[in-house]
Amino acid sequence: MMKTEFQDRLAVITGASSGIGLALCAALLPRGVRVLAMSRTLGELAVLQQIYGERLRWFAGDVTRTDDLHELARQAARLGAVDYLVPNAGSAELADSLDMGAFERQWAVNGAGALNTLAALRGELANPASVVFVGSFLCDSSFPGLAASIASKAALVAQVRTLATELGPLGIRINLVSPGPTATALWDNLGLDEEQLEALTSRLTQRLVPGRFLDAAAVANVMVFQLSQGARGVYGQDWKVDGGYTLG
Questions:
Q1: Which domain holds residue 233?
Q2: CATH number at residue 103
Q3: Assessment of whether the complete model's pTM goes beyond 0.85
Q4: Count of H-run helices and E-run strands, the chain
Q5: Residue (of 66, 48, 185, 228) closest to 58 by Cα position
Q6: What is the pLDDT of residues 67-117, one digit of tens each?
Q7: Could you report the per-residue pLDDT of 81-90, keeping only the tens digit for each?
Q8: Residue 248 located in a structural domain
Q9: 203 burial level (CB within 10 Å; 0-12, 13-18, 19+)
Q10: Considering the domain boundaries, does residue 247 fall inside one?
């Protein structure tokens, strides 16, 4: 196998057991990357472990727990300098727009959880290193019931853009990917019944150029490029991978 820039690099990915996080693991491992994955459950990572063995290490942890993030950093330190970091863990719930408890719950994962992941791993990052955060295609839009989710992601995007200017000169290149409607378990976890979920899916699909939800691999492949030297001139940018949703 011909060596590539990814060969033997180390990536740390949170929220890795399903959806986009899992797809990113599946995209990086064949390229020769060693992956340290963290999630609350092993999920579908078990299949990748059978294929890639010790090149995929899994740690059971929650990004809202400081002790778990510190342990993640300790495990990373034993594997070597971290070349790629993707704080991917996220959550979404439907709630009243004035429900501050809903915002705090989602900020704890989407915002503070992501930023604390970088804070915990910062001392283990290589020079150079690439970090990709996860925003949302709805940050410039409105969607009834998802105000808290959108706000948590929008606040993250604002903070990450400034972090990119602060850490860039230190060899840490930071960007964002904002996925559009993607076929993951997130939608099933909104608490909607089958009829409500079908109506929501139909409403979203009408604005998608391909006429269907994205697959997680489509988002993961953009993340791979952002991590790569091909994107070495890109700093603090938020790339929307949304199937054209924001065009309408």
A1: 10-240
A2: 3.40.50.720
A3: yes
A4: 8, 7
A5: 48
A6: 999 999 999 999 999 999 999 999 888 778 788 998 999 999 999 999 999
A7: 999 999 999 9
A8: no
A9: exposed
A10: no
